[in-house]
């Protein structure tokens, strides 16, 4: 027999680790500071910080739907994470329900009758870069900013709906910028705009913010051929920012490496195995570029088929050989694809089903905040453990989703977790590390 009558139990005991990370970074407090609360103080039951923390931790624990919070608002573990075990009024639960959280997400440019909490989008965009900078005790000598866009499929009639020919469906085209596993920007774009040109505003903002604290850091911007736009490359060259972008092949480029291609083809035919060669040369297009730039070509033949690729860069010939530049520096950008998949598949950043772009952008930032919280947990507490390199979804499944009995007395709250929990060592170690961080801060 099975019944839901276990009483004060929760399936999310690991949320106490997220609370420790949140406290050490002051993340929810700083995120909530990007909102303007115009509610009447006499009628406020839940602070903006409480609402923000509840939504971010809900996403981190796998609750993408606001409807889930009508049950989670009574969950003592979630209340413990927010410091609220009961409501301030007789008819209020410890935490907010779906309607209150929905009003938070649907905030407009100004307060109205139903939405009186206004999000400052510029402050939110700035916060993610600030958190990245705060993670470093000293300025690194060089950083790499990976930029990429992905499709976010939409099915209704949301604002900004457009068809994208490459993906073959109606979608948004959110633009992500990462530095390693640090998320610096997640901007919602419509699919009828060129991501290469749209990226310039975000890259300019991020570079200026980074250099305001680290004026001497060398910055490399890396992306696929969709970002090889003259306006973006010219800005990088004029502002001492290196770039490395893919470059779409064309007849003129193939003719330029015809002799190299023939050599590689003959080698592949002789050995019966794949063969590749590399070349570097200065190049300018007929009319779309305003100056000559260095292009690196990779000529490859496999099974009688041609697989040629090109990249354009400001990295000089003497500091990076063509093969090393392509295979070790450019191809490393593929790891960013995994970070985007984590955001979309594990943290629901593609749940942009609100009508307005503004509300969907805020949803995207909440998912980005959940990603930042989980990767901070991994970076601060899970080093040299079996979860050191796992995805956000694996960390949630193995470390955070723990059946927990909650016992509340006058003087303490006792959490009883299963004896057979497989990751007891990792949990205890993470808790000890985070406790030291909280005490130090």
UniProtKB/TrEMBL annotation:
Occurrences of domain Transposase DDE (ranges): 2-437
InterPro entries: RNaseH-like_sf, Tnp_DDE_dom, Transpos_IS1380
Name of this chain's protein: IS1380 family transposase
Taxonomy of the source species: Bacteria, Pseudomonadati, Pseudomonadota, Alphaproteobacteria, Acetobacterales
């Amino acid at each position: 027999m099975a019944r839901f009558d276990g009483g004060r139990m929760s399936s999310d005991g690991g949320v106490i680790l997220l609370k420790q990370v949140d406290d050490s970074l002051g993340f929810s407090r700083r995120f909530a500071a990007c909102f303007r609360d115009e509610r009447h103080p006499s009628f406020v039951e839940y602070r903006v910080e409480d609402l923000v923390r509840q939504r971010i931790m809900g996403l981190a624990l796998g609750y993408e739907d606001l409807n889930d919070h009508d049950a989670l608002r009574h969950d003592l573990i979630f209340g413990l994470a927010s410091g609220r075990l009961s409501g301030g009024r007789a008819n209020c639960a410890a935490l907010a329900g779906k309607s209150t959280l929905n009003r938070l997400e649907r905030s407009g440019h100004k307060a109205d009758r139903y939405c009186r909490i206004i999000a400052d989008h510029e402050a939110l965009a700035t916060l993610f870069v600030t958190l990245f900078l705060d993670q470093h005790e000293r300025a690194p000598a060089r950083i790499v900013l990976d930029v990429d866009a992905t499709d976010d499929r939409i099915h209704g009639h949301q604002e900004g709906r457009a068809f994208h020919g490459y993906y073959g469906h109606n979608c948004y085209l959110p633009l992500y910028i990462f530095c390693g596993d640090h998320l610096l920007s997640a901007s919602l774009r419509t699919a009828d705009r060129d991501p290469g040109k749209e990226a310039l505003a975000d890259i300019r903002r991020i570079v200026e913010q980074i250099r305001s604290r680290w004026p001497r850091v060398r910055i490399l911007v890396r992306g696929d051929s969709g970002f090889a736009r003259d306006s973006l490359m010219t800005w990088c060259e004029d502002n001492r920012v290196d770039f490395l972008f893919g470059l779409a092949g064309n007849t003129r480029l193939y003719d330029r490496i015809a002799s190299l291609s023939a050599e590689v083809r003959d080698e592949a035919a002789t050995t019966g195995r794949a063969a590749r060669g590399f070349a570097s040369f200065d190049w300018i297009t007929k009319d779309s570029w305003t100056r000559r730039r260095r292009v690196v070509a990779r000529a490859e033949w496999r099974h009688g088929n041609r697989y040629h690729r090109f990249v354009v860069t400001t990295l000089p010939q003497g500091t990076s050989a063509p093969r090393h530049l392509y295979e070790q520096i450019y191809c490393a950008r593929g790891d960013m694809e995994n970070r985007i998949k984590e955001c979309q598949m594990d943290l629901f950043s593609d749940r942009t089903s609100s009508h307005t772009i503004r509300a969907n952008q805020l949803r995207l930032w909440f998912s980005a905040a959940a990603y930042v919280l989980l990767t901070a947990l991994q970076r601060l507490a899970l080093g040299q453990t079996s979860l050191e390199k796992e995805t956000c979804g694996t960390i949630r499944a193995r470390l955070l989703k723990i059946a927990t009995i909650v016992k509340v007395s006058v003087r303490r709250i006792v959490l009883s977790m299963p004896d057979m929990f497989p990751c007891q060592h990792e949990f205890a170690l993470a808790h000890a590390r985070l406790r030291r961080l909280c005490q130090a801060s």
